[in-house]
Structure formats: structure tokens, C-alpha cells
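User: Good morning. I'm curious how S-adenosylmethionine would be positioned relative to this chain. Could you predict the structure with it bound?
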Amino acid sequence: MRDVEGVIQRVGGQGDGVLQQDGQTYYVPFTVPGDRVAARIGKARGDGYAAALHEVQSPGPGRVTPPCPHFHACGGCAFQHWDERPYLEWKREQVHIALVRRDFDGVEVAETIAVPPGERRRADLVALRVAKKVLIGLHERDGKRIVNMETCHVLDPRLVAMLDPVRDLLAQILPVGAPADVVMTATDGGIDLGLGRISPSMAQRTQMVAFAERHNLARITLLGSDGPLVVRRAPVLRFGGVPVELPPGGFVQASPAAEAAMTRMVVEGLVGATRIVDLFCGMGTFSLPLVKEAKVHAIDTDPNLIAALQTGANRAVLGGQLSSERRDLFRQPLTAKELGKFDGLVFDPPRAGAREQALEIAKSDVPVVVAVSCYPASFARDARLLADGGYRLDRVVPVDQFRWSPHVELVGVFRRP
Ligand SMILES: C[S@@+](CC[C@H](N)C(=O)[O-])C[C@H]1O[C@@H](n2cnc3c(N)ncnc32)[C@H](O)[C@@H]1O
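Assistant: Good morning! Here's the predicted structure, ligand included:
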């Protein structure tokens, strides 16, 4: 194996430091600009090579001590070694780069809104029974091994506190060598625990009910089965103050602080609109805060999310203000004609973006469109479609929803001039 030595010039789009040496490019994870490093050259990657950090010979100015002992091994975080300021600025820069690639040179990219550690409310983990122990955690970066999570600086501490109890529970259920999925969500009703790839016996199910009691859980669900195993309290999240019961495994914004920032921008962007359509609405994260001031039509492809939202709205006696629809917006986007009923629109698609829907919005007369996205490249592609249809985008705000990861969330407001 060959080594390369040199100074990291910048951090690339996937979060790895970029080292250029003798006309070659090397991508070295866990490095910051200005680090002088030795790295072991690995496989070809894109226009260069992946390289594993071997030694930091002298640290760059932004290097800090990572708070978590699992950092490097655990595949969850990429940036704990980088000072907050340059790290957040890197996220801003990723949005800027994506926009410039689509000819949005003049659009202002605001400073990234920071999100504190210990705040992530959803843990999506894997488990494996090995001899007498059960490992629970994330896979290592680029590997299959599970890094047994003893602590986590990203997750809500209530979720971290459940790791050992869930290990003990699974040690009684899983045969040696068997894997499981562990999905935990911190809700207002308590922790919602979903366990996947397990087939407990009747006696083990009884143990699980006792476990829920002992640890004061809201609910336990066997993922993929019909209905929960035990519900002690409804696992609710509140949007605009309206409680909505989370369907098992249903989409939630990962961080309450990021969600609050995004909701504020969505609501501010749509001030004055009275007939709003919320596309890719999930459980109504944006619909319910908006419904206080406007009639909202909410659309998503997931029937469980739509049902949860509509039930929550009806219970809060907001059913007259909120209507909902199950629809696949990739295959059957709302047409420009259908959009004619609305004077405000928010869309928050999955990572792939919403190309077909953006083409229809671009042909519509909706005066204000707020776009929320977890992927700058698809945001910029869809933004270009809107801009070519005559919409103006002045400013985009990055949000650090996925702290210490290379992922960037962002919000932009488009107006018809
Ligand atoms: C990033 S989430 C946003 C959810 C919601 N806006 C929120 O903030 O909680 C994307 C949503 O798109 C929905 N979705 C995925 N593919 C879809 C499709 N083809 N048509 C409609 N909705 C879709 C998912 O069910 C999910 O609720």
C-alpha cells in the first residue's frame, strides 16, 4: 500500500478533505483545510483516489477535538473534528456551489442555521446478537461491522438512555448471529420503539409488554406487522400545537430545532396566502402551522401519514380548514391548471427532488412557492425549472438539520414578479 503526504486544500462535496499531489487528487476523510497529513491510498474514486487518514502531522487551523469516542469508527458523523464556524460555512458553500451550477450566480445564500447537539429525535439503528452480547449502533463508514454505540452526541439523550435496555431486551429474543432493526423516536408521548426483522414468541411478546411498562415507553411496534404490539400512550408530535399520532416508522423531520426554523421560514414565506397547497406534506409539519391563517390542501403518497394528519386536524376541529389527498406526485403531479386554485405553495420532496411537479409549478400562476429540500443538487435543478418559468429566487437559507454529517437541508422562497 502506498502513502501520500501533503496539505489538505479544501473539503469536497462528500465531506472528505481534498489533497492534490503530483497531479493526482486524493479524498481523505476526517481532515480539515490546512491539515498536513499522511494518508494511505485506496481505491479509485471519481477523478482521484480515496485515501485513509494515517496521521495528522500538523493540524489545520479549524481542527478541534471530537467530542464522541466513536468518531471515525461510527458511520454516523463526518465532521466532529471541525470547528463550528468553518463547518457551517462549508454547508453554506455546498448550497452556493449547487446554485451556481444551475446559473443562479446572484442568489444570496444566508448563513447556515445551526442546530445544537443532543437533539436528533429519530434513531435508525441496526442490532446483531454476537455470543452473549447484542450490538446496537450504526455501521462503520464504508463497512459492514456494527459500531456498538455506547454514547451519541447527536441523538436526544432519552434515546441514548434506551440503548442498554434495548440490548438487554434483544439478548432475550435474538438467536446468536441474528440481526434486527431498532427504530426509536422521541415523541411527546414518550419513546416510540420499532423493532424489525424479529419474530418473538408469545412469551417474548409478553416480556416486551413488560419492558414497555418498565421503561415507560409510549409504544412498541414490530416493524412490518399490522398494528402495534403495545400502546401505553399515543406517540404524538405537535405541529402548530396540534397533536398528530406518528404512524410506526413514519417520516419525521430529524431535528426539532431544524424543523422549527424551517416552519418559521415556510410560514413567513406564505404570509398573506389564503389557499395553500402543501406537497409532500408528511404528517403536516407545515400544513398544521399554516392552517391557522389559511385553507390548506395537503398531499403525500403515504396513506398512513395522510391519515394521521387528517385525524389530527379533525380532532383539533381544523378539518374544515384542512383537506388532504393521497397522490403520487412523481407520476401524477398537480397540473398547472389544478394549481390555479391556490395562492401559496410549499413543497418538500425526498432527496430526488420533484422534477415533474416543478415543471407544472413553473407553468402555474401561484404567486409564492416555498421549496424545502434535503439535497442542494436536486433543489437547484428544480429551482432552475421554476426560474425558467418566470419565478424569482432571491435568497436560500441552509439549515444544519443533520449535524456533523455532509447532508444539507435548505429553504428557498420563489415569487412571481
Ligand atoms: C422530506 S419528507 C417531507 C415531509 C413533510 N413535509 C415534513 O416536513 O414532515 C418527503 C415526503 O414525501 C413523501 N413522498 C415520497 N415520494 C412521494 C411521491 N412520489 N409523491 C408524493 N409524496 C411522496 C414522503 O412520504 C414524505 O412524507
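The pocket of S-adenosylmethionine is lined by residues 251, 253, 280-283, 285-286, 300-302, 305, 328-330, 348-350 (CB under 6 Å). The mean pLDDT is 97.
Let me know if you'd like a different ligand tried.
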